[in-house]
Amino acid sequence: MDASRANGRARRVGAFVFPANVASPSYLKNPPFTANYGPIVSTAASNSTPNVRLADGLPPLANNELSNLSGALIATALDFKANRVQQFNLMVEKELGGNVVSAGYVGSRGDRIATNPNINLAPAGPGAVQPRRPFATSYPNVSNIAVFLNQGESHYDAMQVVFQRRYSAGVSFNTHYTLAHATSLAPTVWDWQILEWSDAVNDIRNRWVGCGQLRSSLGS
Question: Is the pTM above the cut of 0.85?
Answer without folding.
Answer: no
